[in-house]
From TrEMBL, chain A:
This is Polar amino acid transport system permease protein. It comes from Rhizobium herbae. Keywords: Cell inner membrane, Cell membrane, Membrane, Transmembrane, Transmembrane helix, Transport. NCBIfam families: HEQRo_perm_3TM (TIGR01726). It is found in: Cell inner membrane; Cell membrane. It is a multi-pass membrane protein. Gene3D superfamilies: MetI-like.
Automatic annotation (TrEMBL), chain B:
Residues 66-263 form the ABC transmembrane type-1 domain. Coiled coil: none annotated. NCBIfam families: HEQRo_perm_3TM. The chain crosses the membrane at residues 26-46, 66-88, 100-125, 137-159, 210-229, 244-266. It comes from Rhizobium herbae. Belongs to the binding-protein-dependent transport system permease family. HisMQ subfamily. This is Polar amino acid transport system permease protein. It is found in: Cell inner membrane; Cell membrane. Keywords: Cell inner membrane, Cell membrane, Membrane, Transmembrane, Transmembrane helix, Transport.
């Protein structure tokens, strides 16, 4: 069984290495930058930057579901009839939309460390506790994303007429089933442009996590710039990589938008 | 033929329906409780590590940091607003070359993180030191504050150009046609009819842009400008006292909330003729 897993993981990593767009056999750095500063391997910075690219992309992709999930329930709570629930969620969004992302990141990073240290000390463990930068980044960016996401989803909820809920009642659906079958498909369609903008903002905010030591695009290119003294070239590459991410996601989002609108009448 | 002989006695009002203790109320109470506990915890934490010397020592530097943040943001917003005019014109013109250049500028500055642009200007332009020295601009570009100002101006110009363009294009065609029907010259029509309506549409996005700039300006702390965030980081690195970050958070929140409320007030004031 373990041998099977090992074989599977080696196959997966071999496949990932083959289609790696930067340092794979047909990667751009391998093909076009063989003997330059960007070559792959020990002599160049190509593989380090490719690793940073992967970290940035995976941080954004890991944060998205957390933010969406939290944001959806906060949006639901904001339109609840219960006053205390609305108040609590409004405090949440006011705080996390008002704070600079960098400050949120520091507060989460250092604050979690303090909390973790106190908890561990209470348990009886003395010693340094360090929070993973990736996890801290995920929490901070996820919280900020959920605050903005709840506003987008709330306005999308308001755009869905009451009749749709009543139709669900008339069909004898349970509340959850109404939500799943009637409201959610329309909600996605209405909220998608706003969510696309939020995704772009999230992608750009991941660059901030390099400040607390996550080896993402910006940190890797920054290290390369400091070592080689070619700061302008390396930071241009960082900009270019972020532009590539933005272009790729705008392609994905326009495809998604077409897909969600497939059932609408062509006008 | 029957009719009521006696009046029915007045009934007491029906008992008020018992409000059920719903799940959402429970969750709301719990969430509020968590907020309360968090604020009490933070308060106790601040009280526990409070010291007047620290306050006397770092309080003034926080105020000066606040001043740096506000000057940086206000200058770059104004300069960016001026720079956004030709950009917005470029985005709307029929000339292919100009509109393509403006589009590329806007796409670059909106598609990359502000912090990367800042690094590109502050560290990247250092590579061109001999040329900059030859032109005599090096003393400007080695100053982190100036680099931050330049980056913010270029960045906010791209965003403001898009806001302006969107607002101008949101004015319905009929307004142009109405002006033309009245025989108004193009220039008068633009300044007296199109622009006033566009500015009302643009008001809210402009407010959001200022708030975004205030929040975004925190990153200048990384290139050694001592704005509010920079002073916070300096104080934290000297004292290892977490409450420095909490004070910075409170100051940022106050700034953003004041601006948001001011903007809401301006908006209701300016659009009161549209109220029905």
């Amino acid at each position: 069984m373990q041998a099977a897993f090992a074989a599977l993981s080696s196959v997966v990593s071999w496949f990932a290495g083959m289609i790696d767009p930067m340092c794979g056999p047909i990667g751009i750095f391998r093909l076009f930058a063989a003997d330059t500063l960007l070559s792959c391997g020990d002599t160049g910075w190509g593989d380090e930057i490719a690793y940073g690219f992967m970290i940035t992309a995976s941080l954004a992709i890991c944060t998205l579901p957390i933010g969406l999930f939290l944001g959806f329930f906060i949006a639901l709570a904001k339109q609840s009839e219960e006053k205390s629930l609305r108040l609590a969620t409004n405090i949440y969004t006011t705080i996390f939309r008002g704070l600079p992302e960098l400050l949120t990141l520091f507060i989460v990073y250092y604050g979690l460390q303090i909390v973790a240290q106190r908890v561990m000390a209470a348990v009886g463990y003395e010693g340094p506790v360090e929070i993973n930068a990736f996890i801290a980044g995920m929490i901070a960016l996820g919280v900020v994303f959920s605050a903005y996401c709840s506003e987008v989803l709330l306005s999308a909820f308001k755009a869905i007429p009451r009749g749709q809920y009543e139709a669900g009642d008339a069909l004898g659906f349970h509340r959850g089933k109404t939500m799943r079958l009637i409201i959610l498909p329309q909600l996605v369609r209405i909220a998608l442009p706003g969510l696309g903008n939020l995704w772009m903002a999230l992608l750009k905010d991941t660059a901030l996590v390099s400040v607390i030591g996550l080896p993402d695009i910006l940190r890797q290119t920054g290290v390369a710039a400091r070592v080689t003294k070619n700061a302008f070239e390396f930071f241009s590459i960082a900009c270019l990589l972020f532009l590539i991410l933005a272009m790729a996601s705008s392609l994905v989002f326009s495809a998604l938008e077409r897909w969600t609108k497939r059932s609408e009448v062509a006008r | 033929m029957s009719h009521a002989e006696t009046m029915l006695p007045a009934l007491p009002p029906p008992p008020e329906a018992l409000r059920r203790y719903t799940l959402s109320r429970l969750i709301g109470r719990v969430a509020l409780g968590i907020w309360l506990a968090a604020s009490v915890g933070i308060f106790l934490f601040v009280v526990e590590s409070w010291s007047p010397e620290k306050f006397a020592k770092y309080g003034p530097s926080f105020i000066s940091g606040l001043g740096v943040t506000l000057t940086l943001v206000s200058i770059s917003i104004v300069l960016g607003g001026i720079l956004s005019l030709p950009l917005a014109y470029g985005r709307m013109t029929k000339n292919k070359v100009i509109s393509w250049i403006a589009y590329a500028y806007v796409y670059f500055f909106r598609g990359t993180p502000l912090i990367t642009q800042l690094f590109l200007v502050y560290y990247g332009l250092g590579s061109f030191r001999p040329y900059l020295e030859a032109v005599g601009l090096w003393s400007l570009f080695k100053d982190a504050w100036f680099c931050a100002l330049l980056t913010f101006t270029l960045n906010t110009a791209a965003y403001q150009a898009e806001i302006l363009r969107g607002a101008i294009q949101s004015v319905p065609r009929g307004q142009h046609e109405g002006a033309a029907a009245l025989g108004l010259p193009k220039r008068v029509a633009f300044f007296k009819i199109i622009l006033p309506q566009a500015m009302i549409v643009a008001l809210r996005p402009y407010g959001n842009e200022i708030i975004l700039m205030i929040k975004g300006s925190a990153i200048v702390a990384i290139v050694t400008v001592f704005d509010l965030m920079g002073e916070t980081r300096r104080a934290f690195s000297r004292t290892y006292d977490f409450q420095m970050y909490l004070w910075a958070a409170v100051l940022y929140l106050i700034m953003v909330e004041m601006l948001r409320n001011l903007w809401a007030w301006i908006e209701t004031r300016l659009t009161r003729h549209l109220k029905r």
